[in-house]
Amino acid sequence: MTPLVQSAAWQTLRDHHAQWQDRNLVSLFDADPERFDKFSLEAAGVFMDFSKNHVDETTVKLLADLGRARGVETLRDAMFAGEKINHTENRAVLHVALRAPVGMQICVDGEDVVPGVHEVVDRMAGFAERVRSGARTGRTGKPFTDIVSIGIGGSDLGPCMTVEALRSSLHPRLTMHFVSNIDGAHLAKALRDLDPETTLFVVISKTFTTLETLTNAKSARDWFLASGATHADIAKHFVAVSTNAEKVEEFGIATRNMFGFWDWVGGRYSLWSAVGLPIMLAVGAQGFHELLAGAHEMDMHFRTAPLERNLPALLALLGVWYRGFFGATSQCIAPYAQDLNRLAAYLQQLEMESNGKAVTRDGTPVSTGTCPVIWGEPGTNGQHAFFQLIHQGTDVIPVDFIAALDGGHNLPDHHRLLLANCFAQSEALMMGKSADEVRAEFAAAGQHGVEVEALVPHKVFTGNRPSTTLLVDRFSPRAIGALVALYEHKVFVQGAVWDVNSYDQWGVELGKQLAARIAPELLPGAVAGKHDSSTAGLIARARAAGA
Ligand SMILES: O=P(O)(O)OC[C@H]1O[C@](O)(CO)[C@@H](O)[C@@H]1O
């Protein structure tokens, strides 16, 4: 494929960008009373206002042209057709099959995978409903009160983020805990107040070889056995989610207590598979089905809508536009929802592990910047922490504001203030405040003179800073499903335009290998291997401290 910056579509966009050097968003709104209607759209219950972005109708068309020229639609169709678009691992990429309704056909190597997907979901539902009803108990016959999900990365962030997001739908008897970090403090804190007789562990690992997960699972098993339980009791308190039955059995969990999935489900795209078992345990089978239905609706929109009217494509192309032409190296995620407090962490893996790549699909260096740094915190907390930099710092940082119209609680005054803050932030980022406006404020307060002039530059907001606002009715399972699928497809489109393989993650391997080498060197009496003087010095200090 032609390097991105040499493609005709990119060069046309570059010429078009020259017009944006001195264009002000406010003046675009002044010139066009219909701007909000023209640059907003809704699909699968997600409303997207992208009018406060540096785009006009020509920009949208040119960005869509770029998407088409880079083969977004062809690659999309190949993904839905089960082709092995993850070429470095020779795998299909079919998280969309995980939310396909009964009767839809999606084939890998000539075999329809949808019936197998539903078989697992039905098994999960049977299990989850028995745990939720209290029919399935622990070894002493007591119903479970606590569920500890052990996994990391894609085997943790999706279920953890979703369970938090669906707080208002959680089962009243079951408290959910998520343990990921190999830092023993994480597991120790989770187990501190738990009763082994009423605790169920869900060990999630696609490979079942991940150091963090196996270490935590072994320690959890030791904690359970130390309570007087026998090895035979493990079957009542431990279930596994994996693609690796052999390793699961080796760990001591019988395969009848295992829920499987497939190599065509990438870790960070897996919350819709058995990896979502904690979600189903928390919100029930019905809630999980609604989550899948919301995602499927977004899939169908993504699959069929023209790029100019395609939510995921537009979100992605805006990101490409800012990354490529406005120097944006990061993207802020600002959900105005405390329940979405893990969304930024989830999207960090989804986007950065997928598109944080410096070579194209054929292995040659990329010609322009790829994935920006994804970061964020729920509003309004972010306003009192880092929004200063977004308003008055030196970089362009596009913001995605995400909110629900209904807060899902009975404190309507809080929700009104939350939404007011959300809408005010995007308005302030765009409008800014000029020096004359600052002077007028001082004058209205009766202040004039040299001291006032000295303060003016500090109080000026340049404005003209872009943001997109996503609104849903409320954070129902269906809306969360649609929202997450929206971002999954955004990542897909960006990967296609940048021509990177969004579905491998070789960049995490080197650190794992080196950690495996260093771990035995930290044991008492061990001989340290050959390292640079910094690493050797750090190892020596840890050994001296008896690590
Ligand atoms: O599910 P597993 O095999 O334990 O892997 C966990 C995570 O580790 C990674 O491979 C990266 O370290 C992720 O892609 C994955 O989600």
TrEMBL record:
InterPro entries for the chain: G6P_Isomerase, G6P_Isomerase_C, Phosphoglucose_isomerase_CS, SIS_dom_sf, SIS_PGI_1, SIS_PGI_2
Keywords: Cytoplasm, Gluconeogenesis, Glycolysis, Isomerase
Enzyme class per UniProt: isomerase
GO cellular component, one term: cytosol
GO process annotations (BP): gluconeogenesis; glucose 6-phosphate metabolic process; glycolytic process
Annotated EC: 5.3.1.9
Catalyzed reactions per annotation: alpha-D-glucose 6-phosphate = beta-D-fructose 6-phosphate
Catalytic residues in the record: E353, H384, K512
Subcellular location per the Swiss-Prot or TrEMBL entry: Cytoplasm
UniProt GO molecular function: carbohydrate derivative binding; glucose-6-phosphate isomerase activity; monosaccharide binding
Matches recorded under Pfam families: PGI (PF00342)
SUPFAM superfamilies recorded: SIS domain
Keyword Isomerase: yes
Chief location bin: cytoplasm
Pathway terms, separated by semicolons: Carbohydrate degradation; glycolysis; D-glyceraldehyde 3-phosphate and glycerone phosphate from D-glucose: step 2/4; Carbohydrate biosynthesis; gluconeogenesis
Function: Catalyzes the reversible isomerization of glucose-6-phosphate to fructose-6-phosphate.
NCBIfam families per UniProt: PRK00179.1
Family designation: Belongs to the GPI family.
Protein's name according to its UniProt entry: Glucose-6-phosphate isomerase
Organism the protein comes from: Derxia gummosa DSM 723
Name of the gene this protein is made from: pgi
